[in-house]
Amino acid sequence: MPNPEEELVALLKKHGVDFTSSLPCEKIKTLLELVARTFHHVPLTREEEGVGISAGAALSGRRPAMFVQSSGIGNMINALLSLTGFYNLPLALFVSRRGVYKEKIEAQFPMGRLLPAILAGAGIGWTEINRPENIAAIDRILPEVYGENRIHAFLLSPAVWENSECEVRNAECKIKNTKPKTSDASLLTPHSSQPHLTRYDIIKIIAQYLEGKAVVSNLGWPSKELYALKHQPSNFYMLGSMGMATPVGLGIALTSKKEVIVIDGDGSLLMNPGTLATAAALAPRNLTIIAIDNSAYGSTGNQPTLTGTCVDLDAVAEGFGFRNTINVSSEEQIVEVMKKTREGLTFIHVPAIPGNKDVPNIPIHHLEIKRQVQEFLKA
C-alpha cells in the first residue's frame, strides 16, 4: 500500500525533527495534515516569518523543518541567507514544486521551473524528489542538515503523491476564543500619545529589567544601543534580516521556558505584521514584544514610516488578536509596566523621538553571539 506521506513523516521522526511550520499547498495537503498531527507545528501567515521562527527554535536546540510551496521560496531568500545561513543554523525545507508536473496554473511556471537555478545561485543545496522511491534520499541528507547546520531544500513533485493511498480526515480548525482586551488602565495613554524619549533613552530605562532574560533586538542601531547599555550573553543581536526580530523571539518563546523580550521597531514590524497574528494565535505566555515606535527607519537615515501618519501599532496588535496591549510613553509609565509581572503574551507600544545614539558597532562575531545565546537557552 503506497503511503509516501507516511514514509516521509517517518524519516522526519527518525532524524529528530521536532519543530515544523507551513503554509498551505493543495498538492501536499495530506502531508501537511500528518505533519501537524505528528510534530510541534506552527501555521504561518508568510514564508519569511517561518524562517525567523525556525531560527529561534534552532537557537533553542530544536530541529526545524518548513513546508512551503515553490512560489514561497521567493519570499524567503533574504532571510535564509542573512539569518539562517549567516548564523549557521539548520533548516530543512520541503517544497511543493509547482509549475513542472501537470500544472494547470500558468503563473506557477516561472518559479517552479527556475527554482533549482534560484537555489543554486543562492548557494542553497537542493534535491529533487520526483518519484516516491526518491524519498529515500531524505534519509541520507537530513543528518547533514542538522549535524552540519545546513539549509537544504527538498523539491517535492506532485507526482510523488499521485498514487498515494494515505488518507487523513481533515482536522478541525481550532481557533482560540478571543476575549476583550484586558489591561491596567492606570498604565495606559491614548493611542495618539506623544513621544517623550528617544529609543536610546527607552532602552536605557528597560535595560535593568532585562537581566537573565532572552532578548532579541532589532537590527542596526537598536542592537548597537542595546549592546552599549546592557550587553549580556542572552542577547541575540539581529545584524541583518529586517522584520525578523519578532519571529525569532517567537520561535525562542515557543521552544524555551525562558522569559523572552523582543525589542522591535515600527519599520521592522510593518515589514512582517502577520507575525503578530501568528504570535496572538499561539500566545506563548513567556513572550513580551516591546515596539519602540519612532515613526522612522532609524538605521537608514530616519526616513518616515507610516506610523507617523496612518498606522497605530497598538491598534494593529489588538486587531491581530493580542489580549494584552499597553501604550506607554513616559519614563514613569515604562518603569511601572516593566516592574509588573506580566501574565501571558504582551505587546508594549512605546512612541519615541527619532534619532540614534552615537555608539560603536558590536565587536562580537556573529557566530559567537549565536553560541552565547544557545548556551544561555540550554542552561
Molecular structure report:
The protein is of the alpha/beta class and 379 residues long. The chain folds into 2 domains: 4-161, Rossmann fold, CATH 3.40.50; 185-378, Rossmann fold (3-Layer(aba) Sandwich), CATH 3.40.50. 37% of the residues lie in helices and 17% in strands. It has 14 helices and 14 strands. The chain has helices at 4-14, 29-38, 47-59, 77-85, 109-122, 136-147, 199-206, 221-230, 245-255, 266-271, 274-282, 313-319, 331-339, 366-378; strands spanning 19-22, 41-43, 64-69, 91-96, 125-129, 151-156, 214-217, 235-237, 260-265, 287-293, 296-297, 303-304, 325-327, 346-351. A 6-stranded parallel sheet has the order 2-1-3-4-6-5, with helices on both faces. Strands 8-7-9-10-14-13 form a 6-stranded parallel sheet, with helices on both faces. A two-stranded antiparallel ribbon has the order 11-12. Helix 1 (4-14) packs parallel to helix 2 and helix 7 runs parallel beside helix 8 (221-230).
Give short descriptive properties of this protein.
about 375 residues, alpha/beta, Rossmann fold, six-stranded parallel β-sheet, 14 helices, elongated
Give a brief rundown of this model.
With 379 residues, the chain is an alpha/beta fold. 37% of the residues lie in helices and 17% in strands.
